[in-house]
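Shall we go through a protein fold together, starting from nothing but its sequence? Please make up or recall a protein chain and show it to me in full. Go ahead whenever you are ready, and we will take it from there.
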Amino acid sequence: MDGRAERLRQARIDKGFETAAAAADAFGWNRNTYASNENGNAPFSYRRAKEYAAAFGVRPEWLYDAAGGMRPAAEGGLAPVIGRVGANPDGIVLFATGHDPGELAPIPPGGTDRAVALRVVGHSMRGVADDGALIYFEDQRTPPTPDMLGHVVVVETDTDEVLVKRLLRGSRPGLYDLESVAGPTRQDARLRWAAHITAIIPPFQARRIIRGAA
């Protein structure tokens, strides 16, 4: 799979579509054409990249040739709330669906146009973030770094799960243990990327600052 196809797949998953067919059906695309674009068998044009980018909320320049950031610069210093986390002990991030109008929240101090937020749902993350809180991170998609060890971070596994977990060393290089705030530790996971949490906004303040996307 080439880089363009891989970015398309990433954009589709981040938007909350589990399969290529689900995305194609939602936006009225031909299933076979879209699947061929995503698996790299049929490279897509910049014109098609603009269509896919608009549907998945990413920049067409990034989708087509990896130029610049993944998402458009946040307008008015706002970051998108891209999903929710903590509804169960697994710490799995549930992304917004393709038809969700979305929510926005102010970028925290030190944040960039790659800042995104997750809304905490439920009480399985008590002690880190309570029900209704916002968790911010920079959506940079870079490998784990040593300074993340021992900290609660946002990660993506090689099985397409995005999780909020405490990052620990695994049994050998390249593998990591993922400790839950509540629940069992997942051992020897392979990760595609990890990101520091840059801010946690308590529930009371989060309710005041979240706004609906235009």
Observations:
- The chain has two domains: 3-65, 75-212.
